[in-house]
Design goal:
Layout lengths: L1 H9 L3 H12 L20 H6 L12 H5 L9 E7 L4 H11 L3 H15 L10 E4 L4 H7 L3 H13 L8 E3 L11 H8 L3 E3 L9 E9 L3 H10 L6 E10 L2
Helix pairs in contact: 5-6, 6-8, 9-10
Length: 243
């Protein structure tokens, strides 16, 4: 009887056979490296997760992101979670999210950022998460606003409401990718509008976007918002260029 028991224990269950068959025809692979060695509900394998280049900016003031805005607009605190470099892991993940519509990887990374920020006293009194708005036609063509997806993921962890439609982009602007700082500022100046300023009176808001380079777009939006009585503005992005 003992041998029969051991033999039965060695026979794969129908559930495991079904799971193996599903994995064979519909493999669950890492978004970063394509490996299939990852947990069922994970989006990144252990190696890619460990290779994510975190900045640590959530922990201290006067960091690289905050210095971008010195002398330009008053920012309470600023953070960017990951370093971005051409040809590296983070660029691939952002490309998957922003241009291939992989919202799940955007949510996944935003939850990581939120888990780090929630332990920082610098971001402990935020009233609203505000996604940097896209021009309506551009958002329609893309199908979503990546900053809003990031806010949704952060809201799950931080339990802070996401405020959309109050801050809007009132005109179309050309892509910022190949412009230097002055051109970027000229491209986005006077592009933003607050529909209901009273909602933001005496509030601390976190303005959120996917990537920050020169900060010109975030600055232009913050410039409009800072005219609201009693408002405090902080900034968070998933990535920032270089180290």
């Amino acid at each position: 009887m003992g041998k029969d028991y051991i033999y039965l224990m060695q026979i794969p269950s129908l559930k495991s056979l079904f799971s193996s068959a599903i994995h064979l025809f519909y493999p669950h692979i890492c978004t970063g490296c394509g490996s299939d060695l990852l947990a069922q509900d994970a989006l990144l394998c252990i190696k890619c997760t460990n290779d994510l280049p975190h900045t640590g900016f959530d922990k201290y003031a006067h960091n690289k992101i905050e210095r971008i805005f010195y002398g330009r607009v008053l920012i309470t605190a600023a953070h960017s979670e990951l370093y971005f470099a051409k040809g590296e892991l983070v660029q691939q993940l952002i490309h998957e999210f922003k241009y291939k519509g992989n919202k799940e990887i955007g949510l996944y990374l935003s939850r990581i950022m939120a888990n780090n920020m929630i332990n920082s006293s610098r971001f402990s009194n935020i009233d609203y998460l505000i996604p940097l708005p896209l021009f309506a036609k551009k958002e329609f063509m893309r199908g979503f606003n990546q900053a809003e997806i990031i806010c949704d993921g952060m809201s799950e962890i931080m339990n802070i409401p996401v405020l959309t439609k109050n801050v809007i982009r009132k005109q179309y602007t050309e892509t910022q990718t190949k412009k230097h700082r002055t051109e970027r500022w000229e491209n986005v100046a006077e592009s933003f509008k607050i529909n209901d300023p009273e909602v933001l009176h005496n509030k601390h808001v976190l303005l959120v976007d996917d990537v920050i380079t020169t900060g010109a777009t975030l600055e232009a939006c913050a410039q409009v918002m800072q005219n609201i009585p009693g408002i405090k503005i902080s900034i968070a992005t998933l990535t920032t260029a270089g180290k």
